[in-house]
Amino acid sequence: MTDNNIIDGRAIAEQLHRETTERVKSLEAKGCRPGLTFIRVGEDPASRVYVGMKERMCEKLGIESNTHVLPETTTEQELLELIQRLNANNSVHGILIQAPLPAHINSAKVFETVAPAKDVDGFHPVNVGKLMLGDDSGFVPCTPAGIHELLIRYEINIEGAEAVVLGRGNIVGKPMTAILLQKVRHANATVTLCHSRTRDIAEHCKRADILIAAIGVKEFVKEDMVKPGATVIDVGVNRVDDPQAKRGYRLVGDVDFNAVKPKTARITPNPGGVGPMTIAMLMRNTVPAAEMSTK
Ligand code: GUN
After folding, report:
1. Mean of the pLDDT values across residues 194-215?
2. What's the rounded Cα separation, in Å, for the pair 187 and 29?
3. How many CB atoms are closer than 10 A to CB 31?
4. Distance from the CA of 98 to the center of ligand 1, in angstroms?
5. List 54, 118, 130, 261, catalytic entry
6. Is 255 in a helix, a strand, or coil?
7. Omega before 100 cis (within 30°)?
8. Known catalytic residue at 244
9. d(Cα 18, Cα 16) in Å, to the nearest integer?
10. Is 30 a catalytic residue?
11. pLDDT in tens, 162-199
């Protein structure tokens, strides 16, 4: 396989940002400035970083952003009331509640309180249902939508391909499966979803033309689990202690990148693969959210 087989998520995200910026400008010309509101509960260090990155990207693209930082002790009722106020506020087009939430808060209840038309994360049951049904009028979760966009823009054949998704989470694994199996262009894959109770995951992986790892186990995908010429997408962000590193840890993906890379047709690096695409899709989702509010 070629050496130059990296999927450059940063470059594709830049392309998307340019497209989004144009759409933001044309909305502004009609007197509507897209607005995105973030809610972060508690001080989870990763969540602080992610929300900070999303805020900065909003500013760069001309999207108005607003962040509510609530203490760890916030009750579920207080959070639900804030969401209801934001639902009723016409200048708020998109609402994003950064996960994970503290354990005393029922995340499902929180996500279903967001108005579906403002649910740029695509977590509301209405949007989850629309994705499953193949109704493209809803919002699609940003990470799997970003992976789909990478596959499309790198012209990776999805039609009839064997796609194996590792991990059945609501944010990545399940919606990823729903995207790839639809009976539409750029989908029509045969999808296998593997999880912690799957017997012999390696056997499934070895069949995959497209292997998407979102399992949360560092370097889980080894070289001998990958079919030669496969496309491998690494969603994992795992912290590994590293006394040499400035912060005392480093981030490692779900794929043993150096060993797997030579065997693949295409592979995402980590960082610089899926991460930038998640933010790009969030920014892109905010545009139709704002457009809907003008109708
Ligand atoms: N936490 C990890 N990924 C995500 C995401 O895509 N959206 C939100 N809101 N929280 C997350």
Report:
1. 98
2. 35
3. 7
4. 5
5. 54
6. strand
7. yes
8. no
9. 5
10. no
11. 999 999 999 999 999 999 999 999 999 999 999 999 99
Distance from the alpha carbon of residue 158 to the mean position of ligand 1, in angstroms:
25
The H or E element containing residue 85 is helix 76-88
For the record, the structure tokens of 111 come out as: 């996500």
The atom of ligand 1 lying closest to the CA of 282 is 6
Amino acid, res. 7: I
Closest ligand 1 atom number to CA of residue 47: 1
- Whose structure tokens read 């579906």? 116
Which tokens is 5 given?
């087989």
Would you give the DSSP letter of residue 229? T
pLDDT confidence of residue 294? 78
Q: Counting atoms of ligand 1 from 1, which one is nearest the CA of 121?
A: 7
Q: Identify whether 182 is a catalytic site residue.
A: no
Rg over alpha carbons for the chain, rounded to the nearest Å, is 19
pLDDT tens profile 111-127: 999 999 999 999 999 99
Catalytic site residue from 84, 118, 119, 121: 121
The residues lining ligand 1, judged by C-beta closer than 6 Å to any ligand atom, are: 96-99, 121, 142-143, 171, 278
CA of 152 to the centre of ligand 1 (A): 23
**Residues comprising the chain, all counted:** 295
Name all domains of the chain by residue range, CATH numbers in brackets: 31-117 (3.40.50.10860), 142-275 (3.40.50.720)
Q: How far is the CA of 108 from the centre of ligand 1 (A)?
A: 13
**Ligand 1 atom at shortest distance from the alpha carbon of 100:** 1
What is the phi/psi pair of residue 286, to 5°?
Answer: -70, -25
Beta bridge partners of 165: 193, 212
* Residues 262-284 pLDDT 10s: 999 999 999 999 999 999 999 99
